[in-house]
Amino acid sequence: MAMWSKVWPHIELIAAVLSGVLIIIVYILELQDIALPSVIVYLLAFVIGGYAKAKYGIKKTIEDRELNVEFLMILAAIGASVIGYWTEGAILIFIFALSGALETYTMNKSRKELSALMEMQPDEAWLLKESGETVRVPVGELNTGDLISVRPGERFPVDGEVHTGQTAVDESAISGEAIPVSKYARDNLFAGTVNLSGSITMVMTKPSSETMFQKIIELVQSAESEKSPSQQFIERFEGRYVKVVLLVFVLMLFLPHFLMGWGWNETLYRAMVLLVVASPCALVASIMPATLAAISNGAKSGVIFKGGAHVENLSVIKAIAFDKTGTLTRGKPEVTDFVIRRDANREQVMALVAGIESQSNHPLAKAITDFVIRQGVEPLRSLQVVDVPGNGLKTQFANEEILVGKPGFVGEEEAYAFENGILAILANQGKTVTFISDGHGILAAMALKDTVRDITKSTIAELQDRGIYCIMLTGDNRKTAKAIAEETGVDEYIAECLPGDKVHHLKNLLAEYEYVAMTGDGINDAPALATATTGIAMGEGTDIALETADVILMKNDLSRISYSIRLAKKMQRIVKQNIFFSVAVILVLIFSNFFQAISLPLGVIGHEGSTILVILNGLRMLNRNV
């Protein structure tokens, strides 16, 4: 059974090769003037090589009530044998079976990364019980909030966060990035990624059915079943074209004999050749293999396309709108300036500030605390801190009242006068400024900003070099938006946008540029993502953004947008090459047949050879260098 499971995926190729071997045996028999066994071996070659395609063609014809390419090939092979061209008919079946096997291989190859992902997700995990012991349990029995022990070399069984310990994680299966990522307390962990160094305890944050791996698997499966507009057109065209070919074939059976004086044998022969060379096999295979390979390539590189239509649309994008927070920027405030009064001790002030802020859950407080700790300064402990809603924090230290908060809370005039008006300078740079004061006035000013991602500026520049208009749509105030726009280099920015405003501006862009992408990560971006020609979501974005988007950047890496556009454009080039080549070959073969300049074997080789070539050309999309 195990051997059969390994053989079955290659059964079409095995059948095609066996058919070819039988044709060689027939050739040897004919050299020995052995006639009867030759016919039997030919029939075997027909059945073995053509069974899969014949079954598929007949089934699809009945289901769709539409003639297809496979039907034409069956008819051509039978017709060739009826008029005595057994060898040509067998060769037709052999090459048709070989091209079908190659197309199946292409599709299986495109699904290889998906299968690999499914195998990467562990079935069991080490559950840490309250008693301190670890028990091996099925992943399906785990619940949100469970503590799980993960040792070096093991894969994380579920999505969660670091609870205790620190380690380096190989996230290449999700992000496509080979460089390990350091993980500390409260950092996110994803199922299927590899724990490289330290033993850690993680807390499960999502059910096993909702892990990032499961989302990737579902999205890729959905993408492979969704056809691009070009593929849909070709499939509609195929049914009509086959009817036309069959009509011309019927006319060819009689008209050349009566109008051009051809003999009946020549007339029948040329009708059979027409049936072979006019079949649109290569045209039908021009798009799907390349599209599936492109989707597979994207999955390997941390980009999930939800269907071939979205790859195709991305190739013609003329403008991209970006959300600011969490897209162009990291989405987390960071301390950029820490200005201390000249008569104060820097380390003591930092320790005091961190001691106060560490007792608040506010994002700005956490950012300040993390900054101080990274400077190697230990926060003061045992401070009695009082939260003053809407203003800041206060405490008593060294018999003085210490205030931490906005200018109005610590003394607005003193805040604006501190360090020669540094507040105005920092505010004009789009930064949020927090002050700390003691009994002698302002002690320090801390400027925080949602910093621009390292890759943002180069990504925007590359997109602009490609002639793509870049605009930022943000709900932030004009001052902050202007500062970020200048830093990133976008062509235009619009500030203070509500979700409805983003949709309005997207519609204006669509009217002007026709094909527009939207990149975002939040709930407020979902309507705009749905409105755009192509919605692109950051992988760490909200669930509704991920559901609404057409393309997902798994690692929040904006450079993947440029990569995705290059990939889409390469796919379109290959598809156009395939369509032009396949149509040209069909026309050349048809005219050659009409002028009696081509034989049935050459027609078979030319027609089926072009099919194999377009499939191989489509396989170039598996190359990650785009």
Automatic annotation (TrEMBL):
GO CC term, one of those recorded: plasma membrane
Domain P-type ATPase A: residue ranges: 119-221
Keyword flag Ribonucleoprotein: no
Gene3D superfamilies given in the database record: Calcium-transporting ATPase, cytoplasmic domain N, Calcium-transporting ATPase, cytoplasmic transduction domain A, HAD superfamily/HAD-like
Molecular function GO terms recorded: ATP binding; ATP hydrolysis activity; ATPase-coupled monoatomic cation transmembrane transporter activity; metal ion binding
Membrane-traversing stretches: 7-28, 34-54, 66-85, 91-108, 241-259, 271-295, 579-598
Sorted UniProt keywords: ATP-binding, Cell membrane, Ion transport, Magnesium, Membrane, Metal-binding, Nucleotide-binding, Phosphoprotein, Translocase, Transmembrane, Transmembrane helix, Transport
Subcellular location: Cell membrane
Pfam families documented for this protein: E1-E2_ATPase (PF00122), Hydrolase (PF00702)
Membrane-related topology note: Multi-pass membrane protein
InterPro entries: ATPase_P-typ_cyto_dom_N, ATPase_P-typ_P_site, ATPase_P-typ_TM_dom_sf, ATPase_P-typ_transduc_dom_A_sf, ATPase_P-type_domA, Cation_Transport_ATPase, HAD-like_sf, HAD_sf
Main location: membrane
Family: Belongs to the cation transport ATPase (P-type) (TC 3.A.3) family. Type IB subfamily.
Protein name: Cadmium-translocating P-type ATPase
Organism of provenance: Planococcus maritimus
Gene that specifies this protein: cadA
